[in-house]
Amino acid sequence: MADRLFKAVSVRSLRGAVKGSEYRREAFISYGILIIGYIILQVGAAAGLIGHNLQGQFVPICVYVSLAISLNLVVGISGELSLGHAGFMAVGAFTGIVVTRVLEGSIGFAPLRLILALIVAAIMASIAGFIIGIPILGLRGDYLAIVTLAFGEIVRNFMNVLYFALDDKGHLKFAFNHTIEGIDNSQRIITGAIGATGVTKTATFTGAALLTAFTLFIVLNLKNSMQGRAIMSIRDNRIAAESIGLNVKKYKLMAFVISAALAGMAGCMFGQNYSTLAPVKFNFNTSVLILVFVVLGGIGNIWGGMIAAALLTVLPEALRQFSDYRMLAYAIVLIVVMICTYNPTIKSRVNAFFKKIKPKKKDKTGKKAGKEVA
Amino acid sequence: MTFLNSLISGLSLGSVYAIIALGYTMVYGISKMLNFAHGDVIMVGGYVSFCLTMYVGMNGWVALLIAMVVCTLLGIIIERLAYRPLRGTGSLAVLITAIGVSYFLQNAALLIWGANPRVFTSLFNGAETIHAANGQLTITPESLFTIIANIVIMIVLTLFVSKTKAGKAMRAVSEDNGAAQLMGINVNQSISMTFAIGSGLAAVAGVLMCSAYPVLMPTTGAMPGIKAFTAAVFGGIGSIPGAMIGGLILGIIEIFSRAYISTELSDAIVFACLIIVLLVKPTGLLGKKVSEKV
């Protein structure tokens, strides 16, 4: 009964409920993109068609795709602007690095270490999400955005003064705001602003792709559950949702914490892909980058965000022929694409053009979704 | 005496934040967008002034004026090309475009001026530092002038917004875009003017900031930009006195936590204070609370 009410509140969910097949279509496309992308990259790498530089990008691509999916949960499905996603990523990455390092002596099997690290990273990131989620839920719109921004910066600042090391007996040592004395450089795990050093890489392309599939599974299922519809109905009309007895804070917090946990796992995978990792990597620009994926892919459109994340991660590499001009070209591409996708005049012209070619072709769902949230 | 010295440098840094925050707050007030490229306009102002004094040999003050003109034009051009096509499409699309503009400015600066940090010659090169209380209290001309400039700008701007016709038009547009248009106000012109004023002030802030902290890099504007944005929210975004108060408080908190707590953690403390303020007053110190209607 309650579920039906939520459907009635959320216009878009109502459409989904009437159509019924929308979830299946979205899931089909999303998993399809992931599987096809995985196969293409694997075959391409095996056949030697993909260069070494791009092969090094395989794990980051999966990580950024996962991050785009998890941020879409907050920005698209829950309808809140978050500018601190890199903070959760940082929590996950550094937790994962400490966990794998501690377990290195006792567990020899790398994938098992990775899985344990992912679990701990998810727990730590969700705790961080919970702590930051509680106070911000009373805030609206841009004020919420600035608090998430502040949170991301606070996390990065704390990472700059964190010190972890393993002593001779294999005990974990921790220090805050001062270096640990009497420890070899090789025993240090995390050294303040220098970050993590001597990480044994455990991330593999297959592992990262599986993590992406897991993230997709969680988000798509949540979106199609009773809770998901509750979250979306709050996004579409907070007051109406409240008046039918929805606990707004609970559902907003749920979306935020799940998104944080997934971001923590992606961050953990990211950290396991490099032998050294500095906290500077998780600055405001990274948070913004993930947001760019989500907005460019169409807010609330899961597979759109996936494609945008993959393309934009590869783009700087592909623009390498422009050498010094590549980041400039990246910026121009970003601005032009944004104007072309969102400007009403250009959009209607493009749509009219496509209608001429295919009379029955409908507007993409992602664009509609973006309009509704905005 | 450390306390007083810190207070003065805090006020000086806070004044820089306040001047930058004005640009944020005015643009937000009128077009409801977070202009993330604002911080990079500061950097452009700094570089223009640097080039004019360094390569052309111009007087620092003339260079400041030219930098203001350049940044004003830059602000108008950015608004015209990047933001106007997206007006009315929701804040997120414009936000991402602003981020694109920010990348663009940073990378253009990287190409033109290179990645190496440049040492900025202070506007007050040669002016003497004031010593008081047996030399224990030092006031640099940079901080003194920054504080005065902030106060003057704030007074002029408040008068402009409340007394002149153009200022009233700006306020009307920020209150209700559509109704203002019906009253015969040129909305486009008002928004352009807001961007122009904000960007011109950004040039002033850039030169003052580089005079006090004389390192100029393509990313120089990024962090002060974020801090000033924080200051604007702290004081209540959209409010001019709020930007001033927010900027000053933020500057003082930052310098004090650097002096007494920890240099590395100063940013974390600043942002933590912001979160606490927003918990108590969800729309900032001087922000208006808008109740939601069904």
Give structural notes.
The complex is a heterodimer of chains A (374) and B (294). Chain A is mainly α and 374 residues long. Chain A has helices spanning 2-9, 11-19, 22-46, 52-55, 58-77, 85-103, 110-136, 141-159, 205-223, 226-236, 238-243, 248-271, 284-296, 302-318, 326-342, 344-357, 365-373; strands spanning 162-166, 172-176, 188-191, 195-196. Chain A has a 4-stranded antiparallel β-sheet with strand order 2-1-3-4, with helices on one face. In chain A, β1 and β2 form a beta hairpin. In chain A, α3 (22-46) runs antiparallel to α9. The two termini of chain A are 30 Å apart. The model of chain A is unreliable at 361-374 (pLDDT under 50). The longest helix of chain B has 30 residues, at 2-31. The mean pLDDT of chain B is 87. In chain B, a hairpin with a 4-residue loop joins β2 (130-132) and β3. With 294 residues, chain B is mostly helical. Chain B has helices spanning 2-31, 38-56, 60-83, 91-113, 141-163, 165-175, 177-182, 187-212, 222-235, 240-260, 266-280; strands spanning 118-119, 130-132, 137-139, 215-216. The chains are: A mainly alpha (374), B mainly alpha (294). Chains A and B meet through α8, α11, α13, α15 and α17 of A and α4, α9 and α11 of B.
